[in-house]
Amino acid sequence: NAGVTQTPKFRVLKTGQSMTLLCAQDMNHEYMYWYRQDPGMGLRLIHYSVGEGTTAKGEVPDGYNVSRLKKQNFLLGLESAAPSQTSVYFCASSYEGLDTGELFFGEGSRLTVL
Amino acid sequence: GQNIDQPTEMTATEGAIVQINCTYQTSGFNGLFWYQQHAGEAPTFLSYNVLDGLEEKGRFSSFLSRSKGYSYLLLKELQMKDSASYLCAVKDSNYQLIWGAGTKLIIKP
């Protein structure tokens, strides 16, 4: 059981370049999320989706776009990368039908913008 | 504003007991989570509290007091593999998760 899979695991970009992070889950979860994790700070929600074809902004959406064309996939795009977007990005999914709404995380994608 | 406070770092001895505290101020409350995150890895779910009291799960227990905006995670019989960061998160009135910065727990032999 793969769970939540993120690609790529590592990437180095130059300022102004664009890229897409892919998240795939095989648990048939409705909800998917993109977070960023920076030293000394809690996880911050970038965008999330409550189902196929829907997306919504989180706490820090600027500079990012997302798409959820298929239920199992959630893509995060950086249109024009900036050094402030250097971070570790985590995708997560959940089945909100569960009382706890426990999140299942991918292994993370470490992005460096030079 | 919304805020989750937890100590930045704690040190404990193998075989001992450690308590990691979390205090929160959020707009509404719909549950509190604890996650464990080993260095360079993804967070993994440990516990969930929505009612006051203690939830026990093996060596780990989590306590909640909603009136005090307070929770703690209790780890017993510490093992070296328990060295990790422990993240406290609260689900607010909009069912959004607010995360603390995490407590790095160092276990010494």
Tell me the layout of helices and strands.
The complex is a heterodimer of chains A (114) and B (109).
Chain A: E1 4-7, E2 10-13, E3 19-25, E4 31-37, E5 44-49, E6 56-57, E7 64-67, E8 73-78, E9 87-94, E10 104-105, E11 109-113
Parallel strand pairs in A: 2-11
Antiparallel strand pairs in A: 1-3, 3-8, 4-5, 4-9, 5-6, 7-8, 9-10, 9-11
Chain B: E1 3-5, E2 9-13, E3 18-25, E4 32-37, E5 44-49, E6 53-57, E7 60-65, E8 70-75, E9 84-91, E10 97-99, E11 103-108
Explain how this protein is built:
The complex is a heterodimer of chains A (114) and B (109). Chain A has 114 residues and is mainly β. Chain A contains no helices and 11 strands. In chain A, strands 2, 4, 5, 6, 9, 10 and 11 form a 7-stranded mixed beta sheet that branches. Chain A has a 4-stranded antiparallel beta sheet with strand order 1-3-8-7, with no helix packed on it. In chain A, 34% of the residues are buried. With 109 residues, chain B is mostly beta strands. Helices cover 0% and strands 57% of the residues of chain B. In chain B, the strands form 2 sheets. In chain B, strands 2, 4, 5, 9, 10 and 11 form a 6-stranded mixed beta sheet that branches. A 5-stranded antiparallel beta sheet of chain B has the order 1-3-8-7-6, with no helix packed on it. In chain B, β6 (53-57) and β7 (60-65) form a beta hairpin. Chain B is globular and about 40 Å long. Chain B starts with a strand and ends with a strand. The model of chain B has no long low-confidence stretch (mean pLDDT 96). Classes of the chains: A mainly beta (114), B mainly beta (109). Chain A binds chain B through residues 40-45, 58, 90, 99-108, and chain B through 4, 8, 31, 33, 35, 40-45, 48, 50, 87, 89, 91, 95-102.
